[in-house]
Fold:
Amino acid sequence: MAGFVDATGGGGWGPVGTPALLASGRMEPRKVIGSIDTSEFLVALAASLGFLIGIGTAGIDAGWVLALLAGGLLAAPIAAWLVRIVPPRLLGAAVGGLIILTNTRTLIRAELLPVTGAAQTAVYALIVVIWVAAIAWSWRAHRRDTLAAKQSEHGAPALVVD
Structure:
């Protein structure tokens, strides 16, 4: 799915793949980030080569390229630090909600979603409410799993807290 979104929309490998893999809970966050970053690099390299060969360098402002490069260099160590601290489920819910919120804003501004005024505010509010609920649900699931793991580690019967 992430590859399809990346190929058809001009981006999305990381934003679609990362929350999906994190939310599944089957991989450690560092492996998810490493796998996505590696694949993004290869996709970006192939896309850049195709762009440069097919279109040339006309219209590419070197200042913007350097700004994006600098931003990536600053963000990478912060992201690496965060994925060690934030539980994977919580990280997946937080990142997924942010992506949905920003993409909804983009769709509304591009007038692909015909929503204006109070309806626009209601759409944003609904997304935020669902996002907060998803984060709360993820946090409770993480706490439940952590408690169950600690209790099974000590040989006590698992107590599930709802």
Summary: The chain has a mean pLDDT of 81. The first helix runs from residue 2 to 9. The chain has two domains: 1-85, 87-162.
